[in-house]
Amino acid sequence: MADNAVLSRRSLLKGSAAAAGAFTLGFSIPFTEAQAQNATPEVNAWVVIHPDDRIVVRIARSEMGQGTLTGLAQLVAEELEADWSKVSWEYPTPGENLRRNRIWRNFSTGGSRGIRESHQYVREGGAAARIMLVQAAAKEWGVPEGECRAAKSVITHTPSGRTVTYGKVAAAAAKLEVPKEVKLKPASEWTIAGKSVKRLDTVDKLNGKQVYGADIKLPGMLNAAIKACPVFGGTLVSFDAAKVTGMPGVKKVVQVDRRTVAVIADHWWQAKTALDALPITWDNGPHASASSETIAATLREGLDAEQAFEGNKAGDAKGAIASAAKRVEATYSYPFQNHACMEPMNATALWTPEKCEVWCPTQNGESALAAAIEASGHPAAKCDVHKVHLGGGFGRRGRSDYVTQAVLIAKQMPGTPVKLLWSREEDMLQGTYHPITMARMVAGLDKDGNLVGLHMRISGQSILSGVNPQGLQNGRDPVVFQGLNPGGQEGPFGYGIPNLLIDHAMRNPHVPPGFWRGVNLNQNAIYVECFMDELAHAAGVDPLEFRRRLMKNTPKHLAVLEAVAKGIGWGSPSAPGTAKGLAQIMGFGSYVAAAAEVSVSNAGEIKVHRIVAATNPGHVVNPDQVAAQVEGSFVYGLSAAFHQECTVKNGRIVEENFDTYPAMRINEMPKVESILVPSGDFWGGVGEPTIAVAAPAVLNAIFAATGKRVRSLPLKNADLRRA
Amino acid sequence: MASLNVNGRVVEIDAHPDTPLLWALREQAGLTGTKYGCGIAQCGACTVHIDGEPVRSCSITLGSVTATQKIVTIEGLSPDISHPIQKAWLELDVPQCGYCQSGMIMAAAALLAKKPKPTDVDIDEAMTNICRCGTYNRVRAGIKLAAGI
Questions:
Q1: Mutate which of A223, A389, A666, A674 to disrupt the B interface (most B C-beta within 10 Å)?
Q2: Residue A40 pLDDT
Q3: Do residue B46 and residue B102 come from a single domain?
Q4: Smallest CA–CA separation between A189 and chain B, in Å?
């Protein structure tokens, strides 16, 4: 999404002139082998080849489990004609990107964009490097370039049979001009891309060696624990540092900003213990009496409000509904949710009067750098960010609030690196939450059960209003309409309805919203797909058939739906006690659908037996990793659907840990069959879209099993007991 | 000063006896493979073995562990990723972000030590760790692969 892009671009433009001069890292720890080298044998920005033929591919996007680094490396290696067994990777730093005029382009890793938005230029990078290597070999041999070919890191002069490996010509190739125009291979000729090669980052995750941000160790480093005012909009009035300064290991108690205090100690546990003992006075601010009830009342008012932003419109929806043979209405609601990354937010910063360096897990190295520049007070050329693996991101780490905090803390300990780590409780209370929305769905059916008009009124929070108000379009938040749009990559609506109105009454509670894996597609898919199911039942038509009638002009939407229907055995009898449901949506550039088979016991316990999912992401770079994203999407989506809700009391979030904010565990995990149906004519994302169909497929199956329609999430609040 | 037996070595720990074992391992022993996820024994990211039993190290104190109890962390599970669980995890590319996987692997290894051929119910009961990326089906498949079932 466009979350931090605008902000970081502004900061970076401001800083780029200053960054033109040479800049040397005085204090750095090597994360990858190539960074440890003094002279980098770089062929071009994307490809480093060592004399012993080892290849290092530069990855600008962040790896947070989604496999993007392996996929991007596959794309570069494909065009490079590399020996895949010799490929490893490294992150360039955002500061280096700035210095080199953004040669690696966008670092932002969100919106399932890693591959879908950089496939072209990373493949061109690989192809350009290959051309340079071939040119260097041909030059050395004194033969025409056209007589040479490259395969598996070896260049062969075809007429003579002479060969040379990439490592031998890399230094010469690096001196050649980077070709401007390159021709890319068609996907049909891929040998590395498109294959289920193993991830490049698994081994260190099996023996504890993988360094996450929380694991950073620097010489002389201190540790900080932090607490911000738990009521959003509140401020820090005072704290009594004298009460804790004598505690073991405590070095300093510092005010971080107007709402935040931190304790710095030798060890984090000491810092946290002292912070828990620190007397703090908060001014809870203007929202101290807000609650889930007051927020819900605001949203309910929006359901009927006159003013609303239009997202999609055709014909006269209200008129058609008014004159329809049958009117169907339902109101749905969706709660706040926290990302709850397994690794709580953290960043390590070193501030000196001369420079500032940060080590952190971030989904956007460039906005982390922008945050470091701003907080440090130093010019851009004196700051850099070293990215480390993320212990989950899910959108939360696209924000750089924790980077700002770390720098502001380190600034109060000049010359000493300080690692800031949030407690789980801080992570739960200081989130940027999956926005709260409601939807009123009103439809008209004609006497034959055809859908003649639909009005979908969304009421609730706008992410852009909180995150990036510059992204609003005359006050309208386009992100709210994900999956409901008249066209485009972020979700064209899948149904052809002659009279349609989808609009949004913006109601922004004081709880800060954020991009949460799947973003607004999640809520929207529930509203639309569950209501489609309701309409099918109201019309007395099979839910698949009802949808088919509306999908004559959206064949790609329909194709994935048909694929899951076939996979789950739609239309054939379910196993005794089980029932089926299905859902489809398009978002993040891909078409997805899911079918679920569930049972509900007399006591109201839900069991999801089986899921079939279909994905058309256009191109598939690594089928096994796409399958992993699809499987994981059901855990993220169904954890949210079943268990997760952040409630508000006295202006603050109530749930502070996994005991009150549970996540799905292995015993609840259904079998997931993932069907990939790439049509080969576009590039879509896979990290997020499937999450959106997880909940509606299950909710529709629950209705089929029980006759009870759950319209308010999470499911833990629903009573499905049989009378 | 407390003395611990960690991964077959005696480690001297200079920390308050109330310090959770997790933080003594991470900050004093320098073994950061064991992760902090919740601090209240909910998520299992901090799972280590004490005398072969899987234990959530965030919720026991340094002072409650004796010098003779054998603690094994992810770093000590095998010298070279040769434990059957680690091999299966590699084979199936189980981890995504990987942050929960130290705990997952330690819980799975403890399960196999006790039940070499675990049933699905055994797996459900033993593997209560939280993974937010959603690797559960590969975790299950990995345990079965390691168990040869």
A1: A666
A2: 65
A3: no
A4: 26
Candidates B15, B99, B127; nearest CB to A342:
B99
State residue A39's pLDDT score. 58
B57 and B97 part of one domain: no
pLDDT for position A16: 32
Same domain, yes or no: B16 and B71: yes
Which structural domains are found in chain A, ordered by start? 32-205 (3.30.365.10), 213-285+345-421 (3.30.365.10), 292-337+433-717 (3.30.365.10)
- Chain A residues in contact with B29 (beta carbon < 8 A): none
B72, B88: one domain: no
Cβ neighbors of A10 (< 8 A, separation 6 or more) are none
Q: Which of B132, B118, B45, B92 is nearest to A214 (CA)?
A: B45
Q: Are residues B88 and B143 in the same domain?
A: yes
Residues ≥6 apart with Cβ < 8 Å to A63: A69, A201, A389, A390
Cα-Cα-Cα-Cα torsion A566, A569, A572, A576, nearest 10 degrees, comes to -170
Q: Using a CB-CB distance cutoff of 8 angstroms, which residues of chain B are in contact with residue A517? A: none
Contacts of A641 in chain B (CB under 8 A): none
Work out whether strand A383-387 and strand A356-360 pair parallel, antiparallel, or are unpaired.
parallel
Do A208 and B31 count as a contact with CB atoms less than 8 A apart?
Answer: yes
Q: Collapse the DSSP code of A198 into the 3-class scheme (helix H, G, I; strand E, B; otherwise coil) and give the result.
A: coil
Same domain, B134 and B90: yes
The residue among B132, B135, B137, B140 with the most chain A CBs within 10 A of its CB, best to mutate, is B132
pLDDT digits (tens, 9 = 90+) for A423-475: 999 999 999 999 999 999 999 999 999 999 999 999 999 999 999 999 999 99
Digit-coded pLDDT (tens) for A531-570: 999 999 999 999 999 999 999 999 999 999 999 999 999 9
Structure tokens at A186: 């068609």
Complex ipTM, two decimals?
0.98
Where does the pLDDT of residue A322 fall: very low under 50, low under 70, confident under 90, or very high at 90 and above?
very high
* Host domain of residue B115: 84-147
Question: Which of B27, B86, B137 lies nearest to residue A269, judging by beta carbons?
Answer: B27
In Å, the largest CA–CA distance within chain B is 46
Mean pLDDT of chain A: 94
**C-beta atoms of A342 and B130 within 8 A:** yes
The strand ranges marked E within B52-111 are 53-56, 70-72
Within 8 A of A671 by CB-CB distance, chain B residues are 137
Indicate the residue among B76, B108, B125 that finishes a domain. Answer: B76
Task: Give per-residue pLDDT as tens, A25-78.
Answer: 333 333 333 344 445 689 999 999 999 999 999 999 999 999 999 999 999 999
Domains contained in chain B, number: 2
pLDDT-derived band of residue A488, with 50, 70 and 90 as boundaries? confident
Asked if B78's CB is within 8 angstroms of A202's CB, the reply is: no
Cα separation of A47 and A125, whole Å?
A: 8
Query: By percentage, how much of chain A surpasses pLDDT 90?
Result: 93
Chain A CB contacts of B102 under 8 Å are 208
